[in-house]
Amino acid sequence: MTVIDKIKTAQKTLFTFELMPPLKGNSFDEIAQTVEQLLPYHPAYINITNHRTEQVLVEHPDGSIEKLTLKKRAGTASIAAAIQYKYGIDVVPHLVCGGCTRSEIEDMLTDFDFLGIHNVLVLRGDPAKGEQHFVPTKDGYRYAVEALQQAMQMNAGHYLDESLHDAHSTHFCAGVAGYPEMHSESSDFDADLLHLKNKVEQGASYIVTQMFFDNQKYFRFVNECRKIGIEVPIIPGIKPLATSKQLTVLPQIFHIELPQKLVDNVQRCTSPQDVRKVGQEWCLEQCTELIKHKVPALHFYTMSKADNVETVVRAIFG
Question: Which residues contact 187 (CB under 8 A, 6 or more apart)?
Fold first, then answer.
């Protein structure tokens, strides 16, 4: 079942969450433990992140240095399929432009389709490690909307090989990202919204937001979207703060602002347990208010760790 169909038929706010594939060398058991911990709260679907290749320098015993290209977190398609068929839960693998050619994106979409996975979240992705700005791969895409267009072309039965006739049409339901506090590379908030509107016009069925800790920013974002004609569901992305270190790490990585009240509450804590409790309580208040505003779903960024999220989800969906 597609994400948009689930949203349209739901009688209440849905629960969804996101997982990262484990680092190479680890097993599926790590993912399974998180899934099974959150299963009792009936997730509507689970997102699986996708990570670009990285270039690393490896020094050999003879002193020579070799540049290697590798993925530290692989297996998005296989993990998505394993979850969908083992647990009977729909999955939403991420489709990321960074590090991929057009042909590789088509291959990923083809694999998803063969595996019976018909939901994707289309993202540009982050710059490569060590780069300040995103640089598209040769014969790849600079913007997420281009990969979105490719997915919609496959839905119409059009592939990169123009010699194919009467080709199989896929049935992807595509989501895209939205930024209540503006994308870090956007020139201004209005320009960011126009880019988002273009994604919707090109076929995106719903929007899921970057994490935020101030609901007023989400409400403003939704209102501004509606003003310019974006009518698709806008799902809030949520994360309970877990450590005092995240007071600086989250704003730096995700270009978000933490409310001063939350910062003050965390800084008054005298133990890691107190910090987790403050983060959970803040998140629960956020979720309660969002549900009162009838948001379509609450999407939790778990970082593949279920404990902190489960405490909040149990209070809401348990």
Answer: none
Does the global pTM surpass 0.70?
Answer: yes
Residues 258-296 pLDDT 10s = 999 999 999 999 999 999 999 999 999 999 999 999 999
User: Exposed (0-12), middle (13-18) or buried (19+): which is 295, by Cβ within 10 Å?
Assistant: buried
Structure tokens at 125: 């992705």
Largest Cα–Cα distance in the chain? 66
The rounded mean pLDDT for the chain is 91
Neighbours of 236 (CB within 10 A): 28
pLDDT, position 138: 86
Q: Beta partners for 299?
A: 16, 237
Q: What's the pLDDT score for residue 230?
A: 98
Provide the pairing of β-strand 14-19 with 297-301: parallel
Say what the alpha-carbon torsion angle 270, 275, 276, 278 is, to the nearest 10 degrees.
120
Which amino acid makes up residue 11?
A: Q
Confirm if 8 and 279 have CB atoms less than 8 A apart: no
Residues 43, 49, 54, CA angle at the centre, nearest 5°? 165
* Phi and psi at residue 155, to the nearest 5°: -60, -30
Q: Helix, strand, coil: what percent of the chain each, to 5? A: 40, 20, 40
Structure token digits, residue 142 = 């600079």
Supply 119's token pair.
Answer: 């939901």
| pLDDT tens-digit map of 55-106 | 556 677 776 676 655 666 678 999 999 999 999 999 999 999 887 899 999 9
The first and second tokens of residue 236, run together, are 């809030």
What single-letter amino acid sits at 73? Answer: R
Distance of alpha carbon 206 from alpha carbon 142, whole angstroms: 21
For the record, the structure tokens of 29 come out as: 């058991």
